Amino acid sequence: MSNGWSWYVIALVVLNLAGCVWLLWWTGKRRPGDPAPEDTSHYWDGDLTEYNKPMPRWWLGLFYLSIVFSVGYLVYYPGLGNWVGSSGWTSPREHNVDKAQNDTRIAATFAPYAQVSLPELARDPAALRLGQAIFANQCAACHGADARGARGFPDLTDAIWHWGGKPEDVLASVADGRQAMMPALASALGGEQGIAETIAYVQSLSGQKVDAALAAAGAPRFAVCAACHGADGKGNALLGAPDLSDTYWLYGGDTASIRETLEKGRSGQMPAHAQALGAARARVVAAWVYSRSQPQAQP
């Protein structure tokens, strides 16, 4: 805050306090010619009378005490422009102290799980409760509260893992994140006809009913896709390239959805959570995610 704005705030605060003192003094005194407290001639229902009595002294005293308290408060805490207050209190320092205390409690809670393997954690009811709570706060916005995902967000409860479903793969996804990239391939596939043929061939890999001639024409065009998805279309977990021969489609397996994928490409990002969660919490939530696709691992 500049000095000009600081003095403006100080003047505003002082004027308001002085105005409150003056208002209490001015309205609390009686002047010559004022009607007597019982002489107002305002009556209702015959016997209800409005009086003009001044406020009790103790009540006025409380008002004055509140003003004295506010002055002391403004001296002790930073409330007058750039004045830092006699206590030296700051909200960032208060935040840092609270955060340090909470971090200590969190570290103590998750310390027992820091060196435990994910399969073991996946059989620990206490660890799974903690993992589910973390998932609800950090992951459910994309993958859903039940971890079943949505269009463009993987279902974490099945056995299909584009980046690998081993415990270390799941932990790497949570801690380090993933960046998938499917480039637009319209020109590489030969335009509209090439796209239609490739769509038919890709759909045939997953057992969908397609035009056999169109799919056969698309087979050689699939060589463009085989660099990532493999010659047999079964994908590559190292690249996050999905298996095109199963029935699971992250963005949809209908003709329109596949066409959109080929023409515009896809870019899916799983953010890294290692820094936000820390190693122990990332491990616990990864164990919960791993347990969703491993029913035999659940307690």
Describe the 3D structure.
The protein has 299 residues and is mainly α. It has 3 domains: 3-88, no CATH class; 113-180 and 270-297, Cytochrome c-like domain (Cytochrome Bc1 Complex, Chain D, domain 2, Orthogonal Bundle), CATH 1.10.760; 191-267, Cytochrome c-like domain (Cytochrome Bc1 Complex, Chain D, domain 2, Orthogonal Bundle), CATH 1.10.760.10. It has helices spanning 3-28, 57-76, 91-110, 118-121, 125-138, 140-143, 167-176, 191-205, 212-221, 223-229, 255-264, 274-292; strands at residues 42-44, 48-50, 178-179, 269-270. A two-stranded antiparallel sheet has the order 1-2. A hairpin with a 3-residue loop joins strand 1 and strand 2.
How are the elements arranged and paired?
Layout: H1 3-28, E1 42-44, E2 48-50, H2 57-76, H3 91-110, H4 118-121, H5 125-138, H6 140-143, H7 167-176, E3 178-179, H8 191-205, H9 212-221, H10 223-229, H11 255-264, E4 269-270, H12 274-292
Antiparallel strand pairs: 1-2, 3-4
Helix pairs in contact: 1-2, 5-12, 7-12, 8-9, 8-11
Low-pLDDT segments, ≥5 res: none
CATH superfamily of the largest domain: Cytochrome c-like domain
Widest sheet, order of strands: 1-2
User: What is the rounded distance between the termini?
Assistant: 58 Å
Determine the structural class based on helices, strands and strand pairing: mainly alpha
Rg result: 35 Å
For the record, the CATH architecture of the largest domain stands as Orthogonal Bundle
**Number of E-state strands:** 4
How does the overall form come out from the CA principal axes? elongated
Total of helices: 12
Please name the CATH topology of the largest domain: Cytochrome Bc1 Complex, Chain D, domain 2
Q: Beta fraction of the residues?
A: under 5%
The share of residues in helices is 40-55%
- Averaged pLDDT, please? 91
